[in-house]
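#lab-general

N.A. 3:47 PM
ok so I finally got the sequence cleaned up, no stray characters, all 243 residues accounted for. can someone with queue access submit it? mine expired

B.Y. 3:52 PM
send it over

N.A. 3:53 PM
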Amino acid sequence: MKNYNKILIIKCGTTYSELYPQHGDFDDWLMAGTGLSEEEVTVVAVYQNEILPDAGECAAAILSGSHAMVTDKTTWMENLAEWIRGAVVKNRPLLGVCFGHQMLGYALGGKVGFNPNGLEFGTREIRLAGTTSGDRMFAGFPATFKAHLSHAQALVDLPPGSVRLASSTLDPNQAFRFGETTWGVQFHPEYTPPITTEYIRQVESHLRRRGVDVEALKAQVEPTPESNRILQRFAHIVKDRSS
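B.Y. 4:20 PM
back already:
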């Protein structure tokens, strides 16, 4: 039986078969990024219709990325949206990454759609907004930092009452906070350069049709130490609440 008195990793999909043998899957990347052990987390594959526990039975949750689209509004997505709303009411810390970021926004009243500025892939600059003062997730971060991105859809409109925390040239809603314990980031703090490079390779033809210099994009892939701090920061926030 799964022990849910832990941090949940809500797995919303799986990565490409080319990456899995050497690099693992979404849940592996998130676990490595947080620095948590297998004993400290429980993975629930909601995209395979695994059932989430009552939000009150977990310490917190991280929502992974996915190759699915939030606008598909499948049954498991609608169930997840309902669970998110319950978790927010119960003040459980939540962190959504890429698809997870969009799901948080959708569940809380925002709008998700295809990014009007097109595909956003590679290592790009993230700019913090002037609203991060006192924000526990981004405290001490530089005004700009690099992060890995791979998305077609975006959180087009933030949920009412949320705070925009960061943007990029192609997406004004790179990060947001809802209340005091819910964060979404469109970028991927769990990615490494090899993962980002493979995601670029998977959409090369689409990028080229849009006039993107794919070779230059690959050459610009680099480590993202500031972005990578997000997952450990979230784990620390959760541990501080329970100590």
